[in-house]
Amino acid sequence: MEGGRRDGIPISIEELNKLKSIAEKARRNVVKMLFYDQTIHVGSSLSSIEILTTLLFRYVREGKDPINRDWLILSKGHAAPALYAILVEKGYINEDELWKIQDISGLLQGHPEIHIPGIDMSTGSLGQGLSFGVGVAQGIKMRGGSGRVFVIMGDGEQDEGEIWEAMTHAVTRKLDNLIAFIEMNGFQLDAATSEVKPKDFLPDVWRAVGWKTLSCDGHDFISLINTIEEALKAKAPVVIFAKTRRGMGFKPIENTEKQRASPDDAKKYLTNA
Amino acid sequence: MMQRSTLPMRDTFGRLLADLGEKNKDIIVITADVGNSTRAMYFRERFPDRYFNVGISEQDMVNFAAGLSVTGYKPIVVGFAMFVMRAWEQIRNSIARMNLDVKIMVTHAGYSDSGDGSSHQSLEDIALMRVLPNMKVIIPADSADVKRSLPVVVNELRGPLYYRMGRDYTPVITEGLDYDFKLGKAYVLKDGDDLAIMGAGVVLADALKAAEELEKMGISTAVINLMSIKPIDEDLIEYYARKTGRIITIEEHSIYGGIGSAVAEVLVKKYPVPMRFIGATTFGRSARSERDLLDYYGINYKSIINAAMELVK
């Protein structure tokens, strides 16, 4: 299936099933990566699978011209395994590379790097993707290009001060070609987000600052597609609060602060699924 | 002889940057609410559409510039040296790591923001910038050096680059000298056989004054304008180490990790000679002038002469 350039086209059952099967394959591959490296961020990756699948297989328009293509910035760079697994489905990366993730001889780094095919920004340090996205979106507008910028952030990431700097900046520039996702999975590194710093007020703040604020179920393709379609029509920068579950679909860690599980747990998942 | 002052470097810089914007439509200037103080305002006056004040948000400024650069623009981030360092991690992880064509041009470096005191005095930035892979570091000595280097830096050099200037204190150092700026090249301001003083920036005025005094004492002293701190001119440094056998470095910056350290790194590999390091070892303090601070902390010609006496004894 071709990715991108499907704005406004109603989804067919066939396409929906295809997206589901891509996401399921990517989910299994993320869990399978656990066999090879137990330090990857499985929980955060599984939380992002459907959002990345939807964007890369339905909306992101690829191309060499930097102002007439779309950009995908994974600001929550620790979810790199999910992005890699989907880039395998897109044909950018050989599947064999997944099993060498974080290996000294491998292509795939623990966090995204632009030398990896299909990666638009080197990330890993939280809070930086949105500012970069504002710059890309502004550059596209100044040059009269048609490109759009999608930035994916985590809820824990919202603690970073640079997000505030960028959030207010995007509104000043009236960047209606910028769509940000905030994944609300409820956990950050040490504990639940509610224990570390409150996050419930975030939609109110983003709205008050001037963003068009939408919300969706980040694991439901129909919900995601309907919300993105609405976002694409907006005349302001849009933020989509996507409710997700950390470790979605992988019971040993689902909806917990755990990022990792044992290879045995991974084996059980892969053989039972 | 402390030479007459000229147009402050920040003014020369601001005017020239605006001139460069005339021919190169890809230049974009970005500041964090210091457009007036840095003289980026001259660019704003002529090209308001290519000038962005992002507000008091240096981290956003750096990554905004990074994003603009991938759409083919040439962003120039202009700020106070100290506060751009607030976004050092952004400079490292976005600009240097992705090797993006973003220039970081700072004013108010060293003690030059004399009145504001230690919070505003940037004495660590050279060390922080030169440690980054892909980053180039350029330090003009005076307005003439700005005129020589800025067009080359903006129009010809690709990739991350740090360009460091002060606020007002701008003694004439290189005016009238016949040389072109070239990345990685140092310049001989004065030749000599017994001792070489190496440094960059306004403190080279003190180096020249010290050299003059030392000549009167029969010590033939060379003065080298390093200007391109990274890459650094290893050949010229080695040549003068071999020729004179003694090196003094001077910098308006910490002696830990700065220009003296860069010279020492070269000499340890190529031709070790006795050295003395003149520069900061503490945080600064408020003063009515940059000159007062340089004298207070002993970053001046007297310290050079004392160090020279030790070395030649």
TrEMBL record, chain A:
Gene Ontology MF terms: 2-oxobutyrate synthase activity; 2-oxoglutarate synthase activity; pyruvate synthase activity
CDD domains xref list: TPP_TK
Oligomeric form and interacting partners: Heterodimer composed of an alpha and a beta subunit.
Domain of life: Archaea
Reaction equations catalysed: a 2-oxocarboxylate + 2 oxidized [2Fe-2S]-[ferredoxin] + CoA = an acyl-CoA + 2 reduced [2Fe-2S]-[ferredoxin] + CO2 + H(+)
SUPFAM superfamilies linked: Thiamin diphosphate-binding fold (THDP-binding)
Record's function text: Catalyzes the coenzyme A-dependent oxidative decarboxylation of different 2-oxoacids such as 2-oxoglutarate, pyruvate and 2-oxobutyrate to form their CoA derivatives.
Protein name in the entry: 2-oxoacid oxidoreductase (ferredoxin)
This enzyme's EC code(s): 1.2.7.11
InterPro entries for this protein: THDP-binding, Transketolase_N
UniProt KW keywords: Thiamine pyrophosphate
Transketolase N-terminal domain span: 36-263
